[in-house]
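YM 10:42: Nucleolar MIF4G domain-containing protein 1 sequence, as discussed on the call
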Amino acid sequence: YVPPQARKVQETLDNKKREELGRLKKMVNGLINRLSEPNLPSISGQIEDLYMANSRKDMNETLTDILMNACVTPVAMPSRLMMEHVLLVSVLHHNVGIEVGAHFLEAVVKKFDEICKSDTEGKECENLLALIAHLYNFHVVHSLLIFDILKKLVSIFTEKEIELILFLLKNVGFSLRKDDALALKELITEAQKKANTAEEKLRDQTRVRFMLETMLALRNNDMRKIPGYDPEPVEKLRKLQRSLVRSSGKETELRVSLESLLSADQVGRWWIVGSSWSGAPMINDTSKKAEQKLKIGKVSSKIMELARKQRMNTDIRRSIFCVLMTSEDFLDAFEKLLK
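YM 10:58: structure's back
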């Protein structure tokens, strides 16, 4: 039972919080709407100030919501616009703290997984994949995640997935080759196997042939073979990023796998230092209890009674006490304690 007086206080607090969040959303939205390459330094500076003035949780949620609404639409977004939005996240990720990029990345990956499973007709999947690709381009996330996504797409291998593989390779293929040429080679081999064993209807498609040609061009480091490939815009924005970021990019890259991101609610977010976690226990309690039962062999009831008298009130204390009391010599005690 909550007395009316306390209820009133709570309602006032809730309304106050709602108003604050509404005000914050308006401010961030105004800044994001004006975002472009020339004014990126001033806008990132203003958002940093907002991070200092408000709670990180509120800011992360507000920023992620606004960026997702701006970038994830049923029509294909211009790549330049995507890059500028992700560059802003990257600058904040390096200057404010890695939880900024981590929060945004998790939201994008979960949404991507959800939309890929549902058969939507729009271009949301490509837009989300472009966000992930540029998060990798601007050193927010490690190539591990990109390889995980590519492996998953290759394992499914339908028309939609082939299109997404091509889209991703065109955006980050040469960077992946620089980061981990061996993993890329393995992926290409896997894709060739899949293409050979695919059903007839899919195998004869020009798109599949084009995908394999693109992969071979990547392997041979032949940029001319990839139509529409232009590294210029990314390089230009990377220069801008270097001038805005106060720390070097590599140590703040999130080395996190696709599986870890998708199961973050069950296993916690180990990639964010000091992130609080309230959820189901990471390991089954039953297995934990089983592990805690210590194997110390049969112990006489007399020794157990002594342990009880000495207030050995947990399994581990009783076990240590029994080992010390029943060992023949120090070597025997040492061996048993180790076990």
